[in-house]
Design goal:
Elements: H1 10-19, H2 26-34, E1 51-52, E2 58-59, H3 62-72, E3 88-92, H4 98-107, E4 112-117, H5 120-130, H6 134-141, E5 145-149, E6 165-170, H7 179-183, E7 185-196, E8 206-213, E9 219-227
Parallel strand pairs: 3-4, 3-6, 4-5, 6-7
Antiparallel strand pairs: 1-2, 7-8, 8-9
Helix pairs in contact: 2-4
The structure holds S-adenosyl-L-homocysteine.
S-adenosyl-L-homocysteine (SAH) binds next to strand 2, helix 4 and strand 4.
């Protein structure tokens, strides 16, 4: 599936993602059209495949970004946090900063997005990529989007974690569901997380899960599909 939504332009890529039902919600489509991937992936930005962003990691493929966002709806849009100002979203392993920007577009002007990245140079790259567009600069200047260096296995550092998050996106495969992430999830709230398959012993088999916390605090876990992400690890020295 990695190549099948590729396009020569942003409009063509988004059109193909819609035609292939990777994007089914018009709000997601509009957000994709408003953030130019070329600011985040310098080579082949409209190819539906992961691209190197240095440091041994990749910007995820467009169809994976689409699936992640689709599965986080409706926790990332303004009505998710009605009466509380706007949704608060955590993007762990922010890498290129692309998804952080996309989530900010969906969250609306009252929303907040925190990107956590453990490679400090990449954290800075994410911020710099976002500053390439007027819309991105506005999110940074308003404080609506913040990039911080940290170990995402612990969630967001304090005080950014205060109040919790309506949605948590994890962009690298976790060895397990870290309790800090569940602790930082609001009720109701949803985590989108790739995790190593149980008993896999490092063979690289992973699955994406959604972890839902209902209004009464009940937690439900659902396996979605098999994937290949870079691992959620210790920071390289
Ligand atoms: N959503 C990003 C994904 C980048 S790849 C994008 O599409 O651009 C995964 C990212 O997770 C990498 O940038 C990697 O450095 C980061 N990462 C890995 N382990 C981490 C950890 N423990 N804490 C924070 N970030 C981590």
């Amino acid at each position: 599936m990695a190549w099948r939504s590729s396009g020569e332009s942003l409009a063509e890529l988004v059109g193909n993602l819609c035609a292939n039902r990777m994007i089914t919600d018009d709000r997601v489509k509009q957000a994709f059209l408003s953030v130019d991937r070329a600011h985040y992936a310098t080579r082949s930005p409209y190819k539906d495949a992961p691209q190197s962003i240095g440091h041994g990691v990749t910007i995820s493929a467009p169809h994976m970004h689409a699936l992640a966002v689709q599965h986080l709806m409706p926790y990332v849009v303004p009505d998710a946090a009605e009466g509380r100002g706007g949704p608060r979203i955590l993007d762990i392993g922010s890498g290129s900063g692309y998804l952080t920007h996309l989530l900010a577009e969906l969250a609306g002007p009252q929303g907040e997005v925190v990107g956590v990245e453990h490679i400090s140079e990449l954290c800075e790259t994410g911020r710099a990529n976002m500053a390439k567009s007027e819309g991105g600069r506005a999110h940074l200047e308003s404080g609506q989007v913040k990039f911080v260096v940290g170990d995402g296995r612990k969630g967001a550092p304090s005080p950014l974690a205060d109040g919790g998050f309506d949605a948590i996106h994890v962009g690298a495969s976790a060895a397990k569901l870290h309790t800090e992430l569940l602790d930082q999830l609001r009720s109701p709230g949803r985590i989108f997380i790739p995790m190593d398959d149980e008993g896999d012993h490092g063979a690289g088999n992973q699955s994406v899960w959604t972890i839902d916390k209902a209004a009464d605090g009940t937690v439900t876990k659902k396996r979605l599909f098999g994937v290949r992400y870079v691992p959620l690890t210790d920071a390289p020295r």
